[in-house]
Amino acid sequence: MDPRWCSQFLPQNRECTDPRIERKVDRTPTPAGDGRGNSTSTMIIRNTGVRHGRRALAAPVVRTLLRPISMLPKSALTSATTATATADDVNTKDAELRDALSAAMSYKRKREEADQLKAELAKIPQNFNQFVHIQKHTKGLGSTVKSRYEAGVHLRDPPADATLEMLLAAQAHMGANTSLWNPANARYIYGVRDGIHIISLESTAAHLRRAARVVEEVAYGGGLVLFVGTREGQKQAVVKAAQLAEGCHLFQRWVPGTITNRDMILRAQSLRVVDMLDRDVEGADELLGELRPVKPDLVVCMNPMENYVLLDECGQASVPTIGVVDTDADPTWVTYQIPANDDSLRTTELIAAVLGRAGERGQKRRRADASQGICTWEESDGVRHYRIKKLDEQRKAMEEKMAREDGEVKEEVIHPGDLREQLGRQAIGEAAY
């Protein structure tokens, strides 16, 4: 719509509601009391109110309802502050009341606990007397539960053989970690559990019986058995086994060269020359300086991993060895393997006890045969030469005595069969000369 047209056709006393239309107003001052000036001012105020009212209505409702706190009257602010202070006082009094109530309840609870404890303490003498009365009249009833394992039980009463149950209780089946295993021990392994190899106890029992048979035969033949265990806790086991087999023991560090260089290392050690009944041979003191230090006829090693030098010397000197081989050890280091857990002291005690008992059986068999005149072992070359030399001296002395008695000197010829008979009687300790 054209504003000019609108202004021409609208009446003078009617207001145009279109904000785009500006009404043409005569700004010529009028004398006082003129009605035209008042109507013009009224129209201007009305237009201003319409414009601002539309803007206010177009704004969000929340903004139109907001009003600064400073616009409130002082009486309203004072009443609000008083109400807030009154609420804070009430909350403070409630908190103090709750604290006092909780303190009273806590004190009451502590008193009850103290009274209950005092009552229980007062019942102790009465309960103890009742316990003694019941124990006195019922101590012979029921069964006695014993411990399944006692430390050193195999050493106090060494078994003649090891069953699968005894090996299992001694944890002989626990091998080393699978990452440390030696493939040469695959034939002894039963399976894997929780990252460790499980040793077949049937193989352990079979190899242990074979090793016990070897120890028994060596002891029966008069051989020297050396038991070695250098780990902490193996001392009692090797000492007990050596006592049973009447051998030697070692529970400290092996001195390198004890076997291969025994003429220098063992030259200060004392020796004995005995007969087959373990009696000292008379007049053998002059022979001791000519004999070499003895070497073991069999070595039983409980921890081959720490005694490789010993096993190497035994191999150089052709000394058979028996060793407890775990899954991380090399079974070719020893002559007779016993696949078992070498980290368990229970296993060490059990194996040492069985081998010691086997050596004891061999010694008893040897003495039984010796008492019947059967010699189960052969003497060394040095002792044999010494005995032949003594027999020759005794023969010459006998010939000279017989010649003096007959008044003539003649030489007697001894048949070789008679000489062997004399050597045999001398070996069994018969005083024939």
Walk me through the topology:
Elements: H1 3-9, H2 35-58, H3 61-65, H4 74-122, H5 124-138, H6 153-156, H7 164-169, E1 174-177, E2 189-193, E3 196-199, H8 201-220, E4 225-228, H9 235-245, E5 248-250, H10 262-265, H11 285-288, E6 298-301, H12 308-316, E7 321-325, E8 336-339, H13 345-371, H14 381-406, H15 416-427
Parallel strand pairs: 4-5, 4-6, 6-7, 7-8
Antiparallel strand pairs: 1-3, 2-3
Overall morphology: elongated
Which structural class do you get from the secondary structure elements? Answer: alpha/beta
For the biggest β-sheet, the strand order reads 5-4-6-7-8
The CATH architecture assignment of the largest domain turns out to be: 3-Layer(aba) Sandwich
Total domain units: 4
CATH topological fold name of the largest domain: Rossmann fold
Q: State the end-to-end distance.
A: 169 Å
Oligomeric status: single chain
Count of extended strands: 8
Q: What is the arithmetic mean of pLDDT? A: 79
Radius of gyration: 58 Å
Following the backbone from N to C, one meets helices and strands in this order, namely HHHHHHHEEEHEHEHHEHEEHHH
Which CATH class of the largest domain is shown?
Answer: Alpha Beta
Poorly predicted ranges: 1-16, 19-37, 61-70
Helix percent band: 40-55%
In CATH, what is the homologous superfamily of the largest domain? Glucose-6-phosphate isomerase like protein, domain 1
How much strand? 5-15%
Q: How would you characterize the largest beta sheet? A: 5 strands, parallel
If helices are DSSP runs of H or I spanning 4 or more residues, what is the number of helices?
A: 15
